[in-house]
Amino acid sequence: MTDDVADQVIKAEKDRIQCLLDVDRDTYDRLHATEYRLCNPTGTVWTKAEYLELLTTGRVAYRELGLTGDIDAIVGTDVVVLHYRCVIELTVDGADIPKHDAWHTDVYTNADGTWRCAWSQATGILDLPPAAP
Questions:
Q1: Is the CATH number 3.10.450.50 carried by domain 2-124?
Q2: Residue 82 pairs with which residues in a beta bridge?
Q3: Which residues cross the membrane (predicted)?
Q4: Following CA atoms 20, 46, 44, 116 in sequence, which dihedral angle do they give, to the nearest 10 degrees?
């Protein structure tokens, strides 16, 4: 049962990633809980409605959002936590954000038998210069 739930939620996350690239409003609404919040790499928190507005107006436009490995899942009764690494390239308010890696943590909740993303946290991975000798 746990593996089935993990597989189901991981598929939902892959569909959610694709809907962000496609700006698919119907899939976005179906896969995001009413209380959804995204904390982006700058520390800014957007609600479900704010994020959708940014996507549909093109103020946030993903050029690439792709997994670079497996999605790990911790499965609870009505909560699943996903963790994975991906590569992101996007434009925010007309400014190109260069391609970079990020860690994502997403929390899905089960309401009425439907898994929806309630919280997302994206953390950029910085390429630091080598340590001085």
A1: yes
A2: 73, 106
A3: none
A4: -60
